[in-house]
Amino acid sequence: MVATGTTTRARIYAILRHNSFLPGGRRWRSFHLLALGAGLLAVALSTVDKLPTRLDAVLTATVVIVAGIFFAEYVARLWSAPEAVRYSGLSDGAARLRWACSISGLVGLLAIVPAFVITTGSIKANSEASAVFCILWILKLGMYAPAMSTLGRVISNERATLSSVLVIFIIILVAASTATHLLERGAQPEPFGSIPAALWWGVVTLTTTGYGDVVPHTVGGRMVGSVVMVCGILVLALMTGILATGFSEEERRREYLRVWDQVTKVPMFTELGTVTLSEIVSKLRVRHYPPRIVVVRRDEPGDAMFFISEGEVEVRLPRHAPVRLGQGGFFGEMALLDRLPRNATVVTTQPTTLLVLYASDFYAIAAHIPSLVAAVEKEARRRRLANEDAAKVIPK
Ligand code: CMP
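^ Those are the sequences you sent over. The predicted structure of the assembly is below.
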């Protein structure tokens, strides 16, 4: 009984984790996002004047339902908190208390407040409170959105480079604001009368925002302004480049972990040495398929082969009984080896996770990891013979 309870709790915890790879986790994230979107839309619409009474009731109901979903989520997160590795060693009660006091716990609790506020009237009657829900729910979105944790890691990884660009930004800002203060203070004492006052113009110009509320009037001030605008573009381009590279690096690392997680379920790969394995992991891509999806269609050109890390597929051959391939199996290799169109249609029979190896990587690997390709070739030979035998028994 205890074991079942613990297993259910661990499963719920795994599903609710913001970076869960489980199909249930992905489904929960989509549902959560949908509920959040519906809730935010309802709250935003409720601030519009002169809404029909019927729509007001619909919006109120939507907010109550969404807050109810968040309440259930809060309870589930609180209950499963002892499963978190960071709380290992703590009693269940202590782990739950620690989670409840964490930022994630507090934001989760604040997100259910709307339900209680609404009990005092309709959403329209509480339109000021509605604006607060909007912020709370956006905060919740930020809490669990994978993009936010990725952004946090990218900023942390690139902090040295970002700081150098920030220093350049500050140097240009202070130098330009000081120069414009000296040049413009006579013509415009209010916006340029002091360096701190001139900094506003500096920030607006350097970030290329350009509100146009403060503009230099003297020739010197305009020349400084032109230089600052060009510098602003350069500094922003640098920042963008650093963050974009950081994001793509982070995504590559996450994909590597995702693939590594799946590769361990395919015996063909686990037999390889660690160095070879890490080489192949960088070339594989994880793809999740629902049941009854055609992965490979007969007579189409082949651009990849597939390894099954979870689930099952059915190979539909023209003159052969359907063949089922399960976890650890592979398909799509014959088109790559023979450089011919696909000889069968392959369809998923259940939710299936595949590791995709594109043709160019397959040929590159053939040179580096001959043992893997030899095993693939051996199985392809066996399949070819089986198909030829079947063709003899069941002629066209
Ligand atoms: P390909 O021809 O690229 O695409 C269809 C795939 O079905 C084929 O590669 C093989 O991987 C797979 N296939 C073909 N014949 C058989 C068989 N007899 N048994 C299992 N799989 C097969």
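The radius of gyration is 30 Å. The pocket of adenosine-3',5'-cyclic-monophosphate is lined by residues 296, 302, 315, 317, 320, 323, 331-335, 342-344, 346, 383, 386-387 (CB under 6 Å).

Shout if you want it in another format.
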